[in-house]
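@here heads up, posting the sequence + SMILES for the pyridoxal-5'-phosphate run so it's all in one place. Ping me if the SMILES looks off, I pulled it from an old spreadsheet.
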Amino acid sequence: MTPDEFRTYGYAAIDWVAHFLEHTREYPVLPDVEPGSLVDTLPKSGPEQGEDFTQILEDFEREIVPRSTHWNHPRFMGYFANSSPGEGIIAEMLAAALNPNGMLWKSSPAATELEEVTLDWLRQWMGLSDFWFGQILDTASTSTFHAIVAARVRKGAASGPLTLYASKHAHSSIEKGALAAGVARENVRLIDVDDEFRMRVDLLEAAIVEDVAAGKVPFCVIPTVGTTSVASIDPVREVLAVGRRHAMWVHVDCAYGGSTAVDPRYQPLLDGVDEADSLVVNPHKWLFVPMDLSVFYCHNKEWLRDAFSLVPEYLRTAGDDRALNYHEYGLPLGRRFRSLKLWFTMRSFGRVKLAAMIHAQIEAAKGLAATIAAHPDYEVCAPVHFSLVVFRHRAGDDFNQRLLEAVNASGEVLLSPNVLGGQKVIRLAIGNIQTNRGDLAAVWALLQEKAAELK
Ligand SMILES: Cc1ncc(COP(=O)(O)O)c(C=O)c1O
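bot reply: prediction finished. Complex C-alpha cells:
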C-alpha cells in the first residue's frame, strides 16, 4: 500500500469507525447467525494474487460486521462489558504503525518506559504503595498464571504436592493457571463462601490445616475483589493473615473490581490488597481501554526475575539500572505496545472523569437493582457492590432460561446466564462507556415485555 493509498483507505476506515461509534445502537448486539456461516461464506483458500482493497473493506462491512457480537455496544451487558472509545482506537492504530517489540529496553525505549510511566500512574490512582512493579500482559488469565508460577518458584523445593486455594466463586482462570503451572487438579481447593458469596476464612484455614496434615504444601491463595459470577468481595485482609501464617503467596484477582479504586470512595473495597504479593487489574474490562490490556502488579520485581529470567546471548544488552528489559519478568518475549492506549485513555479522560464514569455506572447498577427488587416477579440474588446486577424471575429455571434467550434474540441487549445456589440467574453487567440510564430503562422494559409474552 502506498502512502497515498493508505490515506485513501485509512480515511475511509476512520469514517467507518466514526459512523459506527455514533450509530452503534442501530446494530443488533447479538448477530442472528448460525455457527459456520462465515466459514461457509468465505473462499475455501486464500487468494493467489492480491485483491482490491476497496473490495476487502466492503467485505469487512458485508461479511464481518453483521456476524459480530458487538462488545462495543452500549447494550452489551453480558459477561463483563468492555469499551473501545476513540482514544484507544487511535492509540491502537498508532501503535501498529510503530510496531515495536517491547521485549528489551533497547528494542523499544519508548514502549518500555511508557509502560513504566502509565503503570506507575495507575498504581498511584489506585492508592497502592510505591514498591509495586507493574507489567502489561494480554489477559487476567495470563497475569494470574504469572503469579502462580512466581509463587511456586518462591516456595522453593517442596516436601509434598503444592496446593492452591481460591473461593468457589473464583474465576476459572485461577484453576487453569494452576493446572498449567503443574498443580494437580485435586490440589486446587475451592473454598466455600458465606451468604454474601465471600470466601469463608474459617474453611480456608481448615482446608490448609487438613492439607498440611496430609503432607501437602500450601503455596498460594487467591482472593477475588469482584467475582465473575456475583461481583462479591473476598475478605482480603483476613485471607492475607491466613496466607502469612502459612507462608503462602497471596495474589488478588481484582481483574474487574480493581478499576474502581481510581475513585478513592471505592478504595475501601480493596482493603488489604496493598499488602498482597501480587494483583491483577484489567483496564480492558472497566477502565475504558480496548482489548487487550491486563495489568499485573507484583510486590517485588526480583521474585518475577527469579521465576522468569532466562537471557540467551542474542538478547544480552549492556547492563544499565534504568534500562528495564521486561522479558525477564514474564513469559512472553515479544510484547505489543499496549501502554500507548492506556496513556491516551488516562490523559484524554483524566482520573476525575474516569472515576466519575465508574461511579455513575455503579450508581446506575444499584438503581436498577432497586427497581428489579421492587418488582414482585423478580428477585435480586446478590448484593450490588459494583456494576453487576444478578437477578432472576421467580417463575423458575426454565422460565429464566427462556426469558434470557428471548431478550438476547431481540438483538436489543446481551445479558449472560449463570447458576447460583443451584438456580438459574441472569447477569447484567454495566461497563460500556456509552451505556446510559435510557439503555437500562429500555432493557428493564424489554425484560418485562418478554416475560409477559412468555407467561
Ligand atoms: C474476576 C475475573 N478474573 C479473571 C478473569 C479472566 O479475564 P481475562 O479474560 O482477561 O483472562 C475474569 C473474566 O471475566 C474475571 O471476571
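MO: The two ends are 58 Å apart (CA to CA).
MO: One more: The pocket of pyridoxal-5'-phosphate is lined by residues 79-80, 139-141, 171, 173, 224, 226-228, 253, 255-256, 282, 294 (CB under 6 Å).
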